[in-house]
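User: I'm curious whether this sequence folds into something compact or stays loose and floppy. Could you predict its structure so I can see for myself?
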Amino acid sequence: MFGTPIVKTARPPVILERAAIELRIMNCPRLPSLGSINVALRELLSADNRYTGQIADVIRRDPSLTARLLRLVNSVYHRQTTPVNSIEEAVFYLGTRQIRQLAMITPVIDDFQKLTGRTQFVWRSFWQHCIATALLTREVINVSGIQPEDADYVAGLVHDVGKIIMAACFGEKFVVIHQRAAIESKSLREIEIEVLGIDHAELGALYLQHHSLPEVMIETARHHHSPELARKTPRVVAAVQIANLLVHAAKIGVSGNNEPVSELEWVNASGWNILLPGADDEVRAVAAGRLRTEIERLPSLIEGLV
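Assistant: Here's the prediction. I'll summarize afterward.
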């Protein structure tokens, strides 16, 4: 009499075509800091004669770097009775290595913050995740006996750039993705593909490729979950994979991926086969032990950076 009842179902998300995604990426602002990251300071720190006064003069030209530097040193050395207010003192306490790292972090994070705009997310925790991964990438490189370069550090810093581009270019879908990720058992990348048609790894690689950035950044963005697929810079990508997993396991910052990472997962990550091919269990255990020591100092350092 009344016919078959109509059952309303939720409409599936509209997945964008690849061409539409790439068009949005083309219109997304570039990150100027990735082209030239505090060149003057980097050159100064690599010189044979490093004078605290000269370094301080360069730092003062960048108010954001100055603020982060003072906040960092007072966070790390919080037990001091008198706060550090002088750039010269900060340089003395931190040393040139951390100053160099800070000089690279500051402009990139500033650019990231501008890109995300008003898109809602736990951005401060996300920046902490990115910075921790960058710092730990360098340590993974060190324990593997590979000669470190600035490229590995920056690659670690921008490995999740696809999530930032997603927030900047596809804000509504980004919000839906992370709302679903908080309550569903699926992986974040699965949800991204269901909602947007592309995951953050491929999205980040396309963005970096469009802006003609170095291959090491492009491969890291695309393959940091599967470094064995990297062709040109597999060792850096492998180091970022391990660092990323270890930062997740240590619960430093938030990447948006809510799947827990066990110690067994990062200790047995596929990246170790690239960094330490043929190494026995003892060699890997020593490397893992050194990384555990490094991870313990990161929380206080990260807290002072962001």
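Summary: Residues 37-102 form one domain. DSSP finds 17 helices and no strands in the chain.
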